[in-house]
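S1.2 Input.
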Amino acid sequence: MSVDQAIRNAVRDELQSFIEEFRPHSAGKHFFTLNEAFERKGGMNWKTFYHDSLYHPRGGKPDAYVHGKKVWKAETIEVWLGVDDHNLAEYLDACGRSLSPTEKAKLAVRVQRVREQIGEAS
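S1.3 Output.
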């Protein structure tokens, strides 16, 4: 095997390893529970996440139930992983989850707090 071929193989193997690490369905997993979704995303307090369906995949609407538990497809989780406070309202709207006036106000306060923390005061 030539050096060039060995380098190509090493890069291909490294890229494949990277893809498998970050694609949830690469391990053959089709559905994720709320706890598994939280573990993949992280970044917030578990109690806040668990008790406020705004932050759940699809705004708390499961793709299915498995053994009585809400679960979401791997594809749903992949999209949801890219959602942050700035685009949460649009994501929820796209999922068909309407926000109450209280939820809208709470989300606006949260977005403002995040903007202040990162220096984007509006």
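S1.4 Remarks. The mean pLDDT is 85.
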